[in-house]
Specification:
mainly alpha, Four Helix Bundle (Hemerythrin (Met), subunit A), two-stranded antiparallel sheet, 8 helices, 2 strands, 2% strand, globular
Length: 266
Amino acid sequence: MDVSEQHAHEPVKKHENIRRGIYILPNLITAGSLFAGFYSMISTLNGDYGAAAIWIFIAAICDGLDGKVARLTGTTSQFGVEFDSLADMVAFGVTPGLMMFAWALKPFGRLGWLAAFLFVACGALRLARFNVQVATVESKRFVGLPIPAAASMVASTVLLFNHFGWPSSYKRLAILALIYLLAFLMVSSVKYYSFKDPELIKRQPFGFLVLAVVLLIIVAAEPAVMVFVIMLCYVLSGPIGLLVGLPRRLRLERAVHKGHEDHHSP
């Protein structure tokens, strides 16, 4: 399941004539994502946090499809871009923020709702930065943790705790730490893989198919555990990649600095 901001939209005209109409199919899928996010809030208010988490995943699936459908059918539009961002803000910002507060952070009082607001605010900043940089950044990498991935990480945590029936004292501290981590990663400059590499849909070795089938079986056997593990691996992949590549970047910076010094030396 692709829970990242898949729909890095193609450049579109800044000024559209809305009177000419809008494209139904991709915007209908975006509306589906918005509906799933809203229904997740309804489930949260009803105290059904497991269902609320599942509806966030459904919203993420719709979010991954709308941009792909728009590009494949040639129906990309500025209206779709704006509608998609607004839907993302609700489904992956406000919805998980409300769920986290009601599920684990309410006992913290003001500190709890401020932590939930931090997640929402950082999600909004992440979306705004993404919209501004969409035409200038590398398409294979996202700058900062995508907001659908952050929301899905929260949802998978809820499902994991419900699956094992862990006590509320654990989840309160865990969620508080998780919120600050996700909020920081969303507004950071840490790079994340976008899964938009065209090579992924081309011919691959037979072993890849076998591995995918085995992975599907494992996920089906323990969905709550495996979805959490997959989301955690993606969230940590950015900081780990940054640390792994740090020595190489430092060597390049030293080489560039040395080159400047040699150039300016008499």
